[in-house]
Amino acid sequence: MISQFLVKKIIKNSEDIQNDFVRNKYGYLAGIIGIILNFLLFSLKFSVGILTSSVAIMADAFNNFSDMASSIITIVGFKLSSIPPDKEHPFGHGRLEYISALIVAFMVMLVGIQFIKSSFKRILNPVAINFELTTFVLLLISIFIKLWLSIFNKTIGNKINSSALKATSVDALGDVITSSVVALSFLSSKFITFPIDGYAGIIVALAILYAGYSLIKETISPLLGEAPDPELVKKINKEVLSYENIQGVHDLVVHNYGIGRCMASIHAEIPANIDIVTIHDTIDNAEREISDKLKIYLVIHMDPICIENEEINSIKIQVESILQRYPIVKSMHDFRIIGHENDKNLIFDIVINHQKSNKNMYEKELKESISKSIKEINPKYKCTITIDKDFI
């Protein structure tokens, strides 16, 4: 309820998330709230840590301080990623949002490393912890604040599809766990004399390190070139196939230059006997309309196929039957026959499952095996097979 109230009061046209201005407002809102709450939590826990001499609480305090810095970097990341395209970066600066999230992740890990050192020192040189009910209650309040902040960032991150805010949400949820450990260790100090504070500090620090590792893994993936969103792939295929005279699609490649900045290319199979001007108009319309609808930049390549040739249709069915023997083969496309009489060449591409490519047979052996099987059915056909990798 609080999240919805803040969004409605601060962000105009909040439902228009395709608008870069509105999307950035969401990022700024999440960042500012993160700065305010994390500063309050840092101040609270730092004071408590000083008063109680607890290294675990101090570790948790500086974790909140790093979260405050993370929120600042997130805001800067949203600001820089919205810079329009220029000569050096024709697809814009959207990936800067990923880089800002990566910086946040490294900061989180740095905090974890520092407090592992502090916790080891506390284990070697234990200090008595003074339990106070007021301090314990304040720690519980901080846990609930962090839980709300995690939910808030996750809600906005999902709404605007922001990796930076999703990462911040995971980080905040990790803080809930670490703060809970700190609170339990603080409570236990009232009943036992064992120097649990240092050990609790190590647990907190390890949790911080794991959160940092998870954030790095989450944010570096799109920078390296991760597979596209399966839902986007389905939408592109469905939209292209909805146009008249497009018989099939393949070789879809999607490049991500930041949220809302995707470039895609796809091959569309069209009847070879259709008027070239007619189908060219169809392709132009498809590129323009789908790009506008899905907020991407789509390029469609035309692949002519023979759909009325009996010989091609007959041997194609036979080849498809052969390919079913190979689980590694996902699909076939660009099937055609070149040559005359008894000197004919079957030319086609197959898409293989790259996850199984190293477990079954090598590409050369696969092509030789398929060619041999086809030769057994009809010796007059030679085969030229191209193996495509699946980029989706």
Automatic annotation (TrEMBL):
Key words, A-Z: Membrane, Transmembrane, Transmembrane helix, Transport
One Gene Ontology CC term in the entry: membrane
Coiled-coil features, chain-numbered ranges: none
Main localization of the protein described in the UniProt heading: membrane
InterPro entries: Cation_efflux (IPR002524), Cation_efflux_CTD (IPR027470), Cation_efflux_CTD_sf (IPR036837), Cation_efflux_TM (IPR058533), Cation_efflux_TMD_sf (IPR027469), CDF_Transporter (IPR050291)
Domain Cation efflux protein cytoplasmic: residue ranges: 228-304
GO MF terms, alphabetically ordered: monoatomic cation transmembrane transporter activity
Family statement: Belongs to the cation diffusion facilitator (CDF) transporter (TC 2.A.4) family.
Gene3D superfamilies: Cation efflux protein transmembrane domain, Cation efflux protein, cytoplasmic domain
Domain Cation efflux protein transmembrane intervals: 32-224
Subcellular location: Membrane
Its membrane topology: Multi-pass membrane protein
Top-level taxon in the UniProt lineage: Bacteria
Protein name in UniProt: Cation transporter
